[in-house]
Write a structure and sequence with these properties.
mainly alpha, globular
């Protein structure tokens, strides 16, 4: 191979700017996913079919279609169908946030079902109404049990945020593509981009592993 590597051609300034946009997308999507994921989980567990079935359809739609299709659909179809015009960044956040909501809802649902019946009975004995039982008993217990899965999902949405480059949101991937085109150094550029994604994701995966091991020790 006669290719001569030149990593000096890779400018970090646009990549770091793109990383900031990627982190903004990830944090905003996680704010949506963590909040609405729990609410969707409660709706899925409703005994009222008219509430449960549409919610299940929402979850299965976002879990069973590619994230890139969801992003493109939001970007092009929402303005045409609903006459709603939002900037690309907002559209990207909504698409990623709703995707994460669907996956987090399943994590919350499994944890809610694992809440000991004795705790709920204790809440009833203390005179807590259904809303108070959810707020003070179900939510804290389910959230703690779901943390490893929620963190894993957050890593996934951080990585999937690279897909928003297709709709010209200037995230890390978009800046990497632009830089590779300008410098004619795609190997070096995308190697650096991959390392940046790895540098952010790897510490979180280690935290997830630690929490899983600690949980297993507490349960044993």
């Amino acid at each position: 191979m006669n290719y001569s590597f030149d990593f000096n051609a890779v400018s970090f300034e646009p990549l770091l700017k793109g990383l900031v946009v990627t982190l903004e997308l990830t944090l905003a999507a996680n704010a949506i996913g963590l909040t609405f994921g729990f609410l969707v989980a409660l709706l899925i567990m409703s005994r009222i079919a008219v509430v449960r079935l549409p919610t299940m359809l929402f979850v299965e739609f976002f879990r069973c279609t590619p994230a890139i299709v969801q992003i493109v659909w939001f970007f092009y179809c929402v303005p045409m169908l609903f006459d709603v015009y939002l900037d690309a960044m907002t559209m990207g956040i909504l698409a990623l946030g709703l995707n994460l909501t669907a996956f987090n809802a399943e994590a919350y649902r499994a944890s809610i079902q694992a809440v000991p019946r004795e705790q709920l009975d204790a809440g009833i004995a203390l005179g807590l109404n259904p809303f108070q039982r959810v707020l003070y008993i179900v939510l804290p217990t389910a959230f703690r049990a779901s943390i490893p899965v929620l963190l894993t999902n957050s890593i996934g949405i951080f990585q999937q945020s690279a897909l928003v480059a297709i709709v010209a949101i200037q995230d890390l991937m978009y800046q990497g593509k632009s830089l590779a085109t300008e410098t004619y150094r795609p190997i070096e550029t995308f190697t650096v981009v991959a390392l940046i994604y790895f540098a952010v994701s790897f510490p979180v995966t280690q935290i997830v592993g630690y929490l899983e091991r600690r949980r297993q020790l507490l349960m044993s």
